[in-house]
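Let us work through a complete example step by step.
Step 1: write down the sequence.
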Amino acid sequence: MKKTLLIAILLSSALTAFAQNPAASSRKSGKKTLSGNPVFPGWYADPEAVIFGKKYWIYPTYSAPYNQQVFMDAFSSPDLVNWTKHPRIIDTTAIKWAWRAMWAPAIVEKGGKYYLFFGANDIQDDKKDVGGIGIGVADNPAGPFRDYLGKPLVDKIINGAQPIDQYVFKDKDGQYYLIYGGWRHCNIAKLKDDFTGFVPFEDGTTFREITPQGYVEGPTMFMRNGKYYFMWSEGGWTGPNYSVAYAIADSPFGPFERIDKILQQDPTVARGAGHHSVIQVPGKDQWYIVYHRRPLTETDGNHRETCIDRMEFDEKGFIKPVKITVEGVKAQPLR
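Step 2: predict the structure and record it as tokens.
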């Protein structure tokens, strides 16, 4: 009798827990309607989320010790819920000058080619170390990517900015800019049409610093209603204070005055939420933030997972604080 009662209690508890997790329920029913967080298994960080054609793509860092971080995978989805893994789209055998720490990719499509920007080798002294920001090119968003330049695009520490965490922003006039930088400094530079180098600004400089208060790394920029939204990560990437803040300006050059922090840990969900990207559903004022975070059960700095949640704005155009979730987001097929 006691055994039967115990089984009944355990079964009831399991069903209750299952019912409280909509993502798990949708998976069990065979029709997955919520992405769940993380959106795909494995340790992945620094996600770059984009839309190519009728698919969403995420290009993350393979989150491992630097000497093992020598390749990148990509993931694609028709609806933000069901993801397909594309393994080893690029690795250090294709990029001869890179030997460790390939991370934080950014990608754009131009002229039927796909250009994957990445940081490599984690250079600490550009007089001693070879590395910086490179570019891979491919005919398909799933690669394989080959070395576009045969050398780094940026291999120097300029304005105090370590050449990492690059983002490629296309302005409304069609001009592409490289926005990048670690070590609490951020630069912007005007890319040549073929991405082989840079076009100097009118004052003769090539790299202009746009660092806002609180900036550490991980820059991202997008436009909404004619305004330039500049976002970045603050805190330490292995710590619970890792987070995302933002500013708004009338130009991609700022000035950018920090407004607020909009993404951070929730002690009941996960720690260290940061290093993100943003996607907008075409033709809609519907936005998502794709970011990494560390599960509450993990203490290893490299144990980071890629997640997605809604990002919304108030009536004045300010970004509302993002609620990080276990459920993730509802299916959103591309039309």
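Step 3: interpret the result. The helical segments are 2-19, 22-28.
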